[in-house]
Write a structure and sequence with these properties.
CATH topology of the largest domain: Glutathione S-transferase Yfyf (Class Pi), Chain A, domain 2
CATH architecture of the largest domain: Up-down Bundle
Structural class: alpha+beta
Strand order of the largest sheet: 2-1-3-4
Largest sheet: 4 strands, mixed
Number of helices: 7
Shape: globular
Number of strands: 4
Bound molecules: glutathione
Radius of gyration: 17 Å
Number of domains: 2
Strand content: 5-15%
CATH class of the largest domain: Mainly Alpha
Amino acid sequence: MIFYDCLTAPSPRRARIFLAEKNAEYESVLIDLSKAEQLGDAYRAINPRCTVPALKLDDDTVLTENAGIAAYLEAAYPDKPLLGATATEKGLIAAWNSSIEFDGLYPIAEALRNASPGLKDRAITGPDNHAQIPELAARGRRRVELFFDRLNEHLKDREFIITDAFSQADISAAVAVDFARIVKVKAQEHHVDLIRWRAGLAQRPSFSL
Ligand SMILES: N[C@@H](CCC(=O)N[C@@H](CS)C(=O)NCC(=O)O)C(=O)O
């Protein structure tokens, strides 16, 4: 498999952690977003949505989106499930993962992409340009702060986000928490449970990636 990655971006990091947790072997190709390589013809031919991550399988099928890559890896490497072992767990993990994207990852992107001078006219990822809307940056940052508060509240007395096992929800939430630094949101002293949970995840080798 070929994994199209970028070491500075959160979305490929989610897939990179998932790959590592599954002990999957792959070659990696780095796409330099700072040089807009995702918009060049070579990468556009691989992923016309011009985003990373993408995973090219041995039969040349290209999977894009964390959702697609995770679904494939879970089916191809079923040991140690990350998307849930039972029907109920699968439902809970999918729901949490979606809400972490909506309440955490998208607001970080909104805060960053609508304010950063380097992302002028790139307020939304993809092949088309979109102008920045500064009000969305302020709203996004406030939503990220609320995400930290709610995650902290949820993690009281829990080691992981869902059930007693590590799952995709932990990966997505931890990547969001780490990347929030870019919009100057960090765990505060009162986020005791969030800090404890994140410290626990740091023991996993996949999190050093
Ligand atoms: N929903 C996609 C999001 C992918 C995404 O937004 N990737 C960003 C990097 S974090 C990207 O490719 N950005 C390209 C750009 O900024 O033009 C997923 O889950 O994989």
